[in-house]
Amino acid sequence: MAWGLFKDMKNAGCAPDNSMYNLLLADRGKYGKVEELFVLYEEMVNKGCTPTTITQNILISSLVKSNNVERAIDLYYDLMSRGFTPTPCTYGPLIDGLLKMGKLNKAMIFFEEMAEYGCKPNSAIYNILINGFGKAGDLETALELFDKMVKEGIRPDL
After folding, report:
1. Are 42 and 79 in contact (CB under 8 A)?
2. What ranges cover the PPR repeats (predicted)?
């Protein structure tokens, strides 16, 4: 539906804005159409729309959802080298993807990196970590993370 509306808008001479592009990017990502997602992203940039943090988070999340975690990490570092300001919505998919791949240490590096960029973890980040370490059988780390979350005043909502 959104895709048809987008085509109709373009045919009518209406220029899509960031919100419309973000909606369409999320749609492509939701259905695992990563190559279409990046073609659309390039179109967005070429048409003069400046990608927002939301746009970049959609790209990262979509890559992780389509099992392209390493590509998502490469994109993250590329964005960071260009002054990108990450949010918990940036880190959540990356950490989750790494945990699902069994890369627990690398997931913790990203978690620790959040503080370096002034990005405070929220309950969603802690939930991802606690669940990931729990599923991996590392209950000690899961409990340490739970304790840290509580000490930081973040209300558990597991």
Report:
1. no
2. 17-51, 52-86, 87-121, 122-156
Cβ atoms of 142 and 133 within 8 Å: the answer is yes
C-alpha pair distances (Å), 121 with each of 25, 55, 72: 25, 20, 19
Whole-angstrom distance, CA of residue 80 vs CA of residue 87: 12
Amino acid letter, residue 27: D
pLDDT digits (tens, 9 = 90+) for 42-101: 999 999 999 999 999 999 999 999 999 999 999 999 999 999 999 999 999 999 999 999
What is the 3-state secondary structure of the chain? CHHHHHHHHHHCCCCCCHHHHHHHHHHHHHCCCHHHHHHHHHHHHHCCCCCCHHHHHHHHHHHHHCCCHHHHHHHHHHHHHCCCCCCHHHHHHHHHHHHHCCCHHHHHHHHHHHHHCCCCCCHHHHHHHHHHHHHCCCHHHHHHHHHHHHHCCCCCCC
Q: Each residue of 7-31: pLDDT tens digit?
A: 777 778 778 889 989 999 999 999 9
pTM of the predicted protein model: 0.90
Cβ atoms 132, 104 nearer than 8 A: yes
Q: Quote the pLDDT of residue 3.
A: 67
